[in-house]
Design brief:
Blueprint lengths: L20 H6 L1 E8 L4 E6 L7 E5 L2 E5 L6 E5 L6 E6 L5 E6 L3 E6 L5 E6 L5 E6 L5 E6 L4 E5 L4 E6 L6 E7 L2 E9 L3 E6 L4 E7 L4 E6 L5 E6 L2 E6 L5 E6 L6 E6 L5 E6 L3 E6 L4 E7 L4 E6 L5 E6 L3 E7 L3 H7 L9 H4 L24 H7 L3 H10 L4 H13 L3 H5 L4 H14 L6 H15 L7 H60 L1
Antiparallel strand pairs: 1-28, 2-3, 3-4, 4-5, 6-7, 7-8, 8-9, 10-11, 11-12, 12-13, 14-15, 15-16, 16-17, 18-19, 19-20, 20-21, 22-23, 23-24, 24-25, 26-27, 27-28
Helix pairs in contact: 4-5, 5-6, 8-10
């Protein structure tokens, strides 16, 4: 098995558009309405150009051409209601579940059934390919989540902690070891495929209809009732905010290509777009029927909305000549290096025969040491080259997963400890790094606690660390007191309001008798 490099977390990119927000979304015009054979329960665009649209409705999957929007092919190998049609990242395979309790993998070109997974006891409502392209996730009304191995056609993981129907799920981009699911038991659960267990459970007030993990894997959005809840996964599922702009149940969520906008469809006939940085609603679209599914193409030019009436709407955004010019590559000047290497990145046409070639991926120095299980040298390498705090913390997290943190920190002299302790002191109060760095600090104290008095430099750094932790604790206590005071004020306002309403009603009742 090939070595997998350390996955460094990513932050959400700020989607910079040349047009104002409302003007940008208003350009999705000329909706095409297509009648299907039943309610459109799922929509997904192919990740590969020309981004064909996969529609799940009734007992079939239908593929619409990304350029002409005409029906291209239909997959009808179902004996029950089809569910959750989804593409693999290369666009070559399609997976779907159905009400006969099976999961099927199809060839996207020939429509033939390549694999059939049998193991669920009730209808399968969730199917997704994992980023490694060899595993499939499925969620069912039998309250289980299963991970299937495509080559062996067997379940490699079975998670059964949910206590009600599992109706939504998603994968973490670039990480095949973690998946998220939402259930009607009012919870969102994060599963670690390697450890074969649930690592995070997040409670909601309503059944969870859909869940999406934002780019970077640190924030999750869950549709529960008429609200969309945003959770910080690095803080154990702490609620960041609740988006309550819908009147009825939110049924579907999707992201734009930049990861800066969240699109939510609801039974109140509306699709609303939110900014995931400011958590504000930026635009709203009305539709003639309750919305069951939404999807946005990878190039952000087509918006598809499926409705309970059995109709789906396809809007296309007109791309201006200015945008096309900005997106088009600049022509290289004659005689330059770029001129002689032009065409090297050409990927070929859709109908071309392609010969796949794997290029050996170069590894960072710390990844090379990790591959050899030299954990201490890997930690030295990532600290020595002025890498970002996120990269260092990602490596430390990987060492925790490998149970190699203590070995990487042990056997160090004063100089080796100095660099690590300085990093901990600098970032211990960073919200995204705190949980990992607390483990590092505890491990350091366990190993070197009896020897720290021998180094004045390390002792001074530990004094600074203690002061920083105490400051953070005082801040948390002050915030807790402020929250308590606000709760008391809100409770007092409710009591006074409740007392004022009967008095007003009594005055209104007595007024006619006085006039009489």
């Amino acid at each position: 098995m090939d070595y997998k490099p350390v996955g460094v977390g990513k932050t959400v990119r700020n989607a910079r558009r040349g047009l104002p927000e409302a003007g940008y979304w208003k350009k999705f015009q000329s909706p095409v309405l297509v009648k299907e054979y039943g309610m459109v329960t799922s929509l997904e665009f192919s990740p590969i150009k020309p981004h064909d649209l996969l529609v799940t409705a009734a007992m079939r999957l239908q593929v619409y051409n990304g350029r002409t929007s005409q029906l291209k092919k239909a997959i009808t190998r179902f004996h029950g209601q089809a569910r959750s049609g989804s593409y693999r990242s290369d666009g070559k395979l399609i997976v779907a579940g159905d009400d006969t309790n099976i999961v099927q993998v199809f060839d996207g070109a020939s429509r033939s059934v390549l694999r059939t997974f049998k193991g669920h006891q009730d209808p399968v409502h969730v199917t997704r390919f994992l980023p490694n392209n060899v595993h499939v996730m499925s969620g069912s009304d039998d309250k289980t989540v299963q991970i299937w191995d495509i080559p062996s056609q067997k379940a490699v993981n079975v998670f059964s902690e949910h206590t009600d129907y599992v109706r939504s799920g998603c994968v973490f981009a670039g990480n095949a070891n973690v998946v998220a699911t939402g259930s009607y038991d009012h919870t969102v659960r994060i599963w670690d495929v390697r450890a074969n267990r649930c690592v995070t459970t997040i409670a909601t007030d309503e059944p969870v209809e859909d869940v999406k993990v934002l780019p970077g894997g640190s924030v999750a959005a869950a549709a529960a009732g008429p609200n969309v809840h945003m959770f910080d996964l690095l803080m154990g599922g702490r609620v960041l905010t609740t988006l309550g702009n819908h009147e009825k149940t939110v049924t579907s969520l999707c992201m734009d290509s930049a990861g800066g906008r969240l699109i939510a469809g609801s039974l109140d006939h509306h699709v609303k777009i939110y900014n995931v940085q400011s958590f504000k609603m930026m635009y709203s679209m009305a539709y003639p029927a309750p919305v069951l599914s939404v999807a946005l193409s990878a190039d952000d030019t087509r918006l598809a909305v499926g409705m309970a009436s059995g109709v789906f709407s396809l809007r296309r955004r007109a791309v201006s000549a200015k945008e096309q010019a900005l997106a088009a590559p600049q022509r290289a000047r004659l005689g330059t290096h770029a001129h002689f290497t032009r065409g090297a990145a050409y990927k070929g046409g859709d109908d071309d025969l392609r010969i796949e070639q794997r290029r050996k991926r170069s590894l960072a120095d710390y990844d090379q040491f990790l591959r050899k299980f030299e954990h201490s040298r890997a930690l030295d390498a990532v600290l020595a080259n002025n890498r970002t705090g996120l990269t260092v913390v990602s490596l430390l997290q990987e060492l925790v997963h490998r149970d190699g943190l203590a070995g990487a920190l042990a056997g160090r002299d004063e100089l080796g400890l100095d660099t690590i302790v300085r990093f901990v002191v600098k970032f211990i109060d960073h919200p995204r790094y705190t949980s990992v760095l607390i483990k590092v600090a505890e491990t350091l104290l366990d190993i070197y606690g009896d020897l720290l008095h021998q180094s004045g430099r390390i002792a001074e750094l530990l004094v600074r660390l203690r002061a920083k932790v105490r400051t953070e604790l005082r801040l948390q206590q002050d915030l807790t007191m402020v929250l308590g005071s606000m709760d008391m004020l809100m409770a007092a306002c409710k009591v006074s309001h409740a007392a004022a309403v009967p008095a007003t009603d009594a005055a209104a009742t007595e007024k006619p008798s006085i006039q009489a």
